Amino acid sequence: MASIFTSAQHLLGKHILLGVTGSIAAYKAAELASRLTQEGAQVDVILTPAAERFVAPLTFQSVTGRRAFTDAELWGGEAHVLHVGLGHSADLLVIAPCTANTLASLAHGNADNLLTITALAARCPILLAPAMDVGMFAHPATQENVRLLSERGVHFAGPGEGRMASGLTGKGRMIEPAELLGHIRLVLGKNGKLVGKQVVVTAGGTQEAIDPVRVITNRSSGKQGYALAQAAIDAGAQVTLITAPTALTAPVGARLIEVRTAAEMLEAVLAVSTRRVDALLMAAAVADFRPKKVAVDKLKKRDGIPQVELEAAPDVLETVAGQKSRKKRPRVVVGFAAESRDLIQNASAKLSSKKLDLIVANDIRAPDSGFGVDTNRVTLLYAVPTRFADGREESLPLMSKAEVAEAIIERVAAMLEAK
Ligand code: CTP
Fold it and tell me: Ligand 1 within 6 A of 290 CB?
């Protein structure tokens, strides 16, 4: 099943060079090559001689549908320009796994195989996913090489902690392909439309305690909010994701703030909104009502059916968007309206009462839209006409939540540009 972050567009047409070096983690590179290809990237793989001992070029050719390069090409007919051509046309060079030896070669400018020659000739960003034994990564020589490369603007993903092939446990494992994909998106986003912009996204359904065991919550999965955070990262924004409990993994690069209740969400949103925030996207399903009193001990069946009295929970969006001080109000505030009837009327009432710039309305009764599912069908209502809307209303077709997120982020970028 496609991940909620799987985007129809993000990697489409991107040219990614994937360098594979001689580590037991080389097999994981095949999965990475496959996932990048599935997401629309053109993936050219270069294997070092040591990598070829772990995994065959044919493995990569089979998953990318393209020729995989090895040192055999270095001595072939077009070899004198191959490395330059590969290095110049790429959007990103990823070396995964990257051994201690290749790391040292890169730090010192050695050019002793097709991969290191290409890395020297490359003008694109470089991302390394180190893979080596604990002691090798901790060694001052490797640490110095990491520092040198970081100073030169080379990006690192990992290594992670865990059990090594040697049986030792510690830092040195190559990170998993799914996480690496997040790092690739983070680096590729660095020339997007929201570079230098601060974006705050809220997600998930808040939980209001009845007693130490039970909560009142809602059916929000957090999927649309997390997809928005990823889309903002893809566009190069600095993203803070304020999240109520969900079963999802946060996108790589997001600053994560975990909250549980509406009150905690309000506090977190207000705390970050004191800085200059460019956009607030309030995708969280925040409780409207909460128990007036939280029982200290677990309510017991033998004591009969409890009467839980409710009170109003704070409205985060109204509080933040309605702030008098312009310094405290994010420049663009986006709300979400989950409606089961009178979609447009209810959503446009929220647009004006909560003083929003944009509200994203969806009909939660449709089986392919709203809570839990991976797709959404939304209507956007704007406070002022934009180039996207006919008038102030724009209906988007049924899309994946990742596509909806991309569309919203594109519009937010345009609104910020117009301000
Ligand atoms: N919202 C909020 N704080 C709340 C309730 C909602 O910030 N206590 C935000 C949501 O994050 C969303 C927008 O307000 O962006 C609209 O939420 P929705 O639940 O559709 O509307 P409500 O204002 O709660 O109104 P109602 O439940 O009556 O439809």
Answer: no
Answer whether 351 contacts ligand 1 (Cβ < 6 A).
Answer: no
Q: Whose Cα sits closest to atom 17 in ligand 1?
A: 337
pLDDT in tens, 316-362: 999 998 877 777 899 999 999 989 899 999 999 999 999 999 999 99
Measure the CA–CA gap between 393 and 395, rounded to whole angstroms: 7
C-alpha of residue 267 to centroid of ligand 1, in Å: 16
Distance CA(310)–CA(308), nearest Å, equals 6
Q: What is the dihedral of CA 266, 270, 273, 275, to 10 degrees?
A: -150
180 lies in the same domain as 320: no
Structural domain span for residue 197: 193-418
Cα of 354 to ligand 1 centre, how many Å? 9
Q: Look at residue 6 and tell me if it is in a domain.
A: no
The answer to whether 218 is a known catalytic residue is yes
Distance from residue 286's CA to the centre of ligand 1 (Å): 6
Q: Domains in the chain: how many in total?
A: 2
Prediction pTM value: 0.93
Q: Do 369 and 312 share a structural domain?
A: yes
CATH number of residue 146's parent domain: 3.40.50.1950
**Residues 147 and 197 reside in one and the same domain:** no
Residue nearest to atom 18 of ligand 1 (CA): 337
Q: pLDDT tens across 247-278, in order?
A: 999 999 999 999 999 999 999 999 998 758 99
Residues 6+ apart with CB under 8 A from 179: 157, 158, 160, 252
Q: How confident is the model at residue 2 (pLDDT cuts 50, 70, 90)?
A: very low
Q: What pLDDT shows up at residue 1? A: 41
